[in-house]
Design goal:
binds calcium ion, two-stranded antiparallel ribbon, single chain, 251 residues
Length: 251
């Protein structure tokens, strides 16, 4: 299993939890991390920071920014606060999008801009058989922010697994529960990022949307899917995933 992880890490904190959950899994062979939406360089630097904490060295690729209108609306402007001034200034290498083989699995937890672009410009992506997407309708953020891209991605001939917002919302941490993560450097970073996100968004709970997507892609059985014509859509999740997230991040 070769996972390619496409993310808008840095805004809603669930991407950072999802990336940590993935990188901590010894079974997962993470081939590349691609960043999408808005300032993809800042996002790549946040991914690099997480990789350094976890002592992994997966290539990080700066992807596409997305439609201008969506960037204006969804680049919230606090994302760089996850980085120190030094981390922000440290240059990052420009790498091409990855090559895909038949074992590649795509995990898409941001706008689908990068995937649609690669479908037109990077033929090896057509080798991918399975793709996991956070979002099930064109009204969900990741699909809505670049609808044109979403339509292209959903029309491509691969098996699509989609996580619905309704199911993903069942796994969430309150501010008090997030305190439990604080015992390690990684946990503290995630905790602080989560509080920043909750303060910004005025929310009380942090939903782990993107972690469900990773869990499903890893073949774990927490997320339940049913087939709807050509695609698989989530209909429930085992609440035990919440304990599992805590256990994995704290390990
Ligand atoms: Ca995301």
């Amino acid at each position: 299993m070769n996972i390619i992880f496409d993310t808008d890490v840095g805004t809603d904190v669930d991407d950072a939890f999802a990336l940590a959950y993935l990188l901590k899994n010894p079974e997962a062979n993470v081939k590349a991390i691609t960043t999408v939406m808005g300032n993809t360089e800042i996002r790549a630097k946040i991914a690099r920071k997480l990789e350094r904490m976890l002592q992994t060295n997966t290539p990080i690729i700066l992807g596409k920014s997305g439609p201008e209108e969506a960037v204006k609306k969804y680049w919230l402007g606090f994302e760089h606060l996850a980085l120190t001034e030094e981390e922000l200034q440290e240059p990052i290498e420009r790498l091409p999008f990855p090559k895909y083989d038949e074992d590649s699995i795509l995990v898409c937890i941001g706008t689908l801009t990068n995937i649609a672009w690669q479908l037109e410009n990077s033929p090896s992506i057509k080798n991918v058989k399975r793709i996991y997407i956070m979002g099930s309708s064109l009204e969900d953020h990741n699909l809505k922010a670049d609808q044109e891209a979403a339509k292209k991605v959903l029309a491509a001939p691969w098996t699509v697994y989609q996580i619905t917002k309704q199911v993903a919302k069942k796994i969430c941490f309150t501010r008090e529960e997030l305190e439990e993560f604080k015992s390690s450097r990684l946990g503290r970073f995630l905790y602080e990022s989560a509080i920043r996100w909750l303060d910004y968004s005025g929310k009380q709970n942090s939903a782990m949307y993107d972690v469900l997507t990773v869990s499903a892609a890893l073949g774990e059985k927490y997320v339940k899917f049913k087939q709807e014509s050509e695609r698989f859509v989530s209909y429930d999740v085992d609440p035990k995933l919440k304990d599992r997230i805590l256990e994995v991040i704290k390990s």
